[in-house]
Amino acid sequence: MADYDESTYGERIAEVYDGFSQLFRGDAEAAVEFLAPLAKGRRVLELGIGTGRIALPLAQRGIRMHGVDASPAMVEKLRSKPGGAEIPVETGNFANLKIGGRFSLIYVVFNTFFGILSQDEQVRCFTRVAKRLTPDGVFMIEAFVPDLTRYNHGQRTFTQLVSDERTIMYVARLDAAAQYIRSQNLIIDDGGIHRYPVELRFAYPAELDLMARIAGMRLRERWGGWDRRPFTSESANHVSVYELVPQPIVTPIKSAKRPRLKVVRGQKRRRT
């Protein structure tokens, strides 16, 4: 889509997003169990908070949640849910994070980081996040591990659901050189064909690690899922936790006092 931007996905899918999540993402409880200890009872920020799938259960545990999302329609859905109106949300592209204060945990789940559509903006997001972490805070990313073998001549199509009421399909085209995917979730029912576009600029785990280093962070741990299974070459997803690189404590060197030189005037030579 020529007019696709960071808000398009949420604006188009907001009405059916929660239903999609229930069908294809049964990991909310596991995600909350993983994230809650990282919060350390302090402020937490979700990038791409959406309808509150993860943020609301965390808030119910007494965690002080904040959020950022590019889609007003998704935030409106969040506001309509119990407790959703109490969560402060900044609307906009989270690569340009402007929210104030510091957080013990900043996280982004469900491949949402890849919704930042250029490498430069992804690096900028890491840099902005690093400036908003407490000294002992962490940045957590959950995303898929790119697997180009799933594409046949740069294309991929599969059926996600077939029932008497509807059929859900996924179609995508891959630009491997640009690490860019243009895709559509298609819902076919008695009301017609409904299209929900998704565009992603994906990154490999090693590239994310380099972005973190540029921003002054480093990888603390990486898992193959919310259940902390080992991350291996067979892992389809990763849960990566980054921390700030400790800055060396520089002790100022006191300069030694220079001894004052005594100037001795030379005596005049007597003429003979």
Question: Can you give a write-up of this model?
Answer:
By secondary structure, this protein is α/β, with parallel strands linked by helices. It has a domain at 8-146 and 202-244: Rossmann fold, CATH 3.40.50. It has helices at 8-13, 17-24, 28-39, 55-60, 72-79, 119-132, 205-214, and strands at residues 43-47, 64-69, 89-91, 103-108, 133-144, 155-162, 166-175, 180-189, 192-201, 217-223, 237-244. A seven-stranded mixed beta sheet has the order 3-2-1-4-5-11-10, sandwiched between helices. A four-stranded antiparallel beta sheet has the order 6-7-8-9. The longest helix has 14 residues, at 119-132.
Give structural attributes.
272 residues; 24% helix; single chain; 7-stranded mixed β-sheet; alpha/beta; 4-stranded antiparallel β-sheet; Rossmann fold; elongated
